[in-house]
Amino acid sequence: MFGRNAARAAVYVVRDPRDVAVSLAYHNSAAIDDAIKFMSAAEGTLCHGRKWLAPQLRQKLAGWSGHVTSWLDQTDVPVHTVRYEDMVAAPAEHFGAALEFAGRSATRAEIERAIRHADFAELQRQESEKGFAERTSREAPFFRSGRVGSWRESLTIAQADAIEQCHGAVMARLGYEVEKC
Q: N or C: which end of the chain has fewer CB within 10 A?
């Protein structure tokens, strides 16, 4: 949409689609099966209505795999892909690499400060104290857990299989373990 003249680089953060399904269902106050169906829909969009958020550009997602490959396979803007799980496991290393890729410099202290401020517990504390503008539910917080692998406790075998059947090739490309495909 914007092309090579609009950005020098992009950092693309990707997350295991099994965890995305759990998070999306919670965020949308929907059933997990509905989240899985949405993530697999080539015609899926965000911001197609004005129900909750301020007006935004309609965003075509093309499903989880379509969205991921649209970033990985385009050649207009250099892309540095970071798996969410790797960021959680080694935040300073991966955040520092993303900054370097984007041509931004930061001291180790600045990186560590940013990581402290982006910690899930800190985000939950801030949301509890001050609210969060993009929160879509009055009852449920926006920053739920951010845990890696929470899908193992939340998805049925059939749900995990459905995600892997639809997205297994892209998951494998990104180094995610595909258990049943």
A: N
With 0-12 / 13-18 / 19 or more C-beta atoms within 10 angstroms meaning exposed / middle / buried, residue 143 is middle
Alpha-carbon distance 43 to 53, whole Å? 21
Number of domains in the chain: 1
Segments of the chain assigned E as strands: 10-14, 45-46, 59-60, 79-83
Residue 78: pLDDT over 80: yes
Band (pLDDT 50/70/90 cuts) for residue 57 is low
In a domain, 169, yes or no: yes
Q: In this structure, is residue 119 part of a structural domain? A: no
Show Cβ contacts of residue 157 under 8 Å, excluding neighbours closer than 6 positions: 180
Q: Write down the pTM of the prediction.
A: 0.82
pLDDT tens-digit map of 156-165: 999 999 999 9
